[in-house]
Specification:
This protein is of the alpha+beta class. The protein contains one helix and three strands; from the N terminus they run βββα.
Length: 66
């Protein structure tokens, strides 16, 4: 889920993007490799990864099936 404030400083001056140019094998549990979405705090420099809404739904469905 896309954050609305920084988890480190609680600032709301965030920049959203993707981590790196490649895909990450650790995301294969989502059904295919995925790029990692990140929020960068322009106030303190913290970088926070997060899942998009559709990726989060897949994880919840996968977890419910266990």
């Amino acid at each position: 889920m896309k954050p609305i404030k920084c988890s480190a400083c609680q600032g709301q001056n965030l920049f959203f993007g993707r981590l790196g140019a490649g895909v990450y094998p650790a995301t294969l549990f989502l059904g295919r490799p995925a790029r990692i979405s990140v929020a960068v705090c322009l106030s303190c420099g913290a970088v926070n990864p997060y899942l998009s809404e559709d990726q989060l739904e897949k994880v919840n469905a996968w977890k419910s099936a266990e």
